[in-house]
Amino acid sequence: MWDAETNDIVLHIDTEQQLLTVKSGDLVLWQAPVSTSEHGLGEEEGSYKTPRGRHRVAEMIGDGEPLGSVFKNRRPTGEVWTEDAPPSRTDMILTRILWLAGDEPHNANSQERYIYFHGTNHEARIGHPASIGCIRLRNADMLRLYNEYARVNTPVVIE
Fold first, then answer.
1. DSSP string of the chain?
2. Which of 28, 52, 80, 106 has its CA 20 to 30 A from that of 46?
């Protein structure tokens, strides 16, 4: 049985299937659809691509904020997005942030590129590449990932 205190999990992103799988060894604990970059995969600065390879959660941001909290520069604005809000083309960062750091030479710039897991105001596009580099989740899924599975230094694999 998985123990949250030992945090022996890995967050695995399958970019082809647009799927997050939370694993403990060979045990699948949970899965959720995601949205990676509409520009594809890559590690180049300014590319707006989702970086590949091994990462880890460097920072967790948003403890105690309500579902749909709007973040700017990794700080809550006090605004709360709801599903009945008017449509917006803006890619909002909502609910929680898991800020990633790359653990390999080719993706060592991921943190400086501000690559996150985060909630989104474009929930209808989850399951399809639509972000500008980050990994988007539905807000309820982002909250669950943050509260139940992620910790600082949790390994992340993006393939």
1. ---TTT--EEEEEETTTTEEEEEETTEEEEEEE-B-BTT-B---TT--PBPPEEEEEEEEE-TTPPTTEEEETTEEEEEE--TTSPP-SS--EEEEEEEEEE-SGGGTTTTTTT-EEEE-S-GGGTTS--BSSSEEE-HHHHHHIIIII--TT-EEEE-
2. 80
**Amino acid identity, residue 96?**
R
70/118 Cα distance (integer angstroms): 10
Show the tokens assigned to 73: 């520069």
Residue 21, classified by CB atoms within 10 Å of its CB into exposed (0-12), middle (13-18) or buried (19+), is middle
pLDDT value for 7: 59
Rounded mean pLDDT for each run of 10 residues along the chain, 159 residues in total: 63 98 96 98 97 98 97 96 82 96 97 98 96 97 98 98
Distance CA 86, CA 37 (A): 23
Query: What pTM, to 2 d.p., does this model score?
Result: 0.93
Alpha carbons 68 and 94: distance in angstroms, whole number: 5
